[in-house]
Structure formats: C-alpha cells, structure tokens
Amino acid sequence: MSISVPATFVTGLVEAEGEAQRPWLDALPALAERYLRRWRLTLDDGAPMHGMGALVLPVRTASGDAAVLKVTWPHVEAEHEGLALRLWQGRNVVRVLDADDANFVLLLERLDHTRVLDDAPLDEAVHVCAEFLRTLAIPAPAEIRPLAAVAKRWVTELPEQSKGIVPDHVVAEAVAACERFGPLARPLLTNEDLHYENVLGRDGTWVMIDPKPIAGDPEFGVLPLLWNRFGEDDVMARYATIVREAGLDAERARGWALARAVDNWIYPELTPACRAVGLALAG
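That's the Streptomycin 6-kinase sequence above. Prediction below.
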C-alpha cells in the first residue's frame, strides 16, 4: 500500500505555509498507510486528489463500499471539521464514516468529484449555497472556535495589516463592525469557507465538503461566495441575492462582509473582489 504524495500538493503547501510543513509532509505517506490498516481500507483506482491543505485518497472499505481517506494538514480552521460534519449528519454535507479528529484524518463517503457546483450556472450555484447558509446554521458546541474571539483580534489586526493598502474609511467601518457584532455573535455552526468548488454531486443533489467551522453568525460565510467567480456578474447584486435567499440579517451581513473584505484585501488573487465589495459596503 505505497502512498505517493503529489508533488503539486507538497509545493503548494510549502509555498503557502513555509518550510516548517516539511516534517508533516515527509510523514504523510506513513500516516495515511496507518489508517488504511486501522480501518481495513484498500486503495482504489484513481489518482490521489488534493486541495491546498489535504490529501484525499480513493479507497474501498472492508465491505467494498467506495470512500475517500482524507488526511488534512493540521491547522486551526480544520480542527473541528469532523465534529461539524457529524453534527450536520449528512444533510447537504458529506457523510463521515470514521474519524480520528486528533490527527485530522477522516474517512468520508465518496462523492462525484466530476460534478462540481463551480461548473453550474451562477444563478443555480448562488441559490444552492444560500440555502446551505440558511439550513446549516444549527447550535454550535462549545469546542468550536468562537467568532467573537476572531472579531476581538481583528479590532487591532485589521488596521495594522491594512495600513497603506486599504482606504482608511473602509478599515474604520470594518473595525466598527467587529466591535459591534463580535460580542453579539450568535453561537451557530457556520462554515467560513463555503464556496462553489467545495460543493460536489451526490445522486442528483449537491453536497458540501471541506468546511471550516466557526461558532458565530451565518452572515460571516457570505464573502467567499462573492470572491469566488468574481467578474461573472454584478457582485453587489449577487450579495443582495444571497442575503435575501439565505434569510440573513442585512446589517450583520454588511458588517461581516466588510470585515472579511479588509482581512483578505492583502491577497492579490482576492484584492479585486475585496476592493469592490469593501468600497461598495463602506459607502
């Protein structure tokens, strides 16, 4: 059961997170093989898949069912992925077959990775994700990292990291939103990384994968739905559609979208969308 880690995964993670990730990458084949043995899995046909932070191996269970073994690079945003998925119980999300949360290893049902919401018409994709924002907002357990703590940190971080990059009035509005809505954030399970590439097909339906759970307002999940597929439409019209169809609070949605726009403005690939949204919402 020899595991070959794609060079593109290694390069991408090191470029994004630095050379400090090399030891984990070096140990990754042995870690994956350990769980193949523990859960009595066999590698199936098909090449290993990956995003930026996880290796995904097509496998078969001992009973012959198709599944995937997902081994994630340990980081705080993914710490409670397995817990969140189990709480959602497979309703519009990928099902968990087994898990070792401490080592960021999940055994998941295998979805149709050739059917991606990112390829669907934008109107359909927006509607599906707005529905996810609405229906997946359930009470979050105490273990999930709180949005209130993120907002408190951003009050000082956003002005420091944005100096000379983001207009001062936009930063001021974002900080004010953190100060206003952070202490009032509701303890609801929210995916802060919901976007169209992380929704795959299952028997004619759409299913969310790879959540980054946070305990807070579902309005915090809006901005990735705007910077993904940016340029295909009037982004502020899309923003209004998401807020309306997801049944979101307009003021919270505005505040959190502003805060996240400022936080992500510094990344070149996100700058155009964050600038457009930030300037429009700040007025």
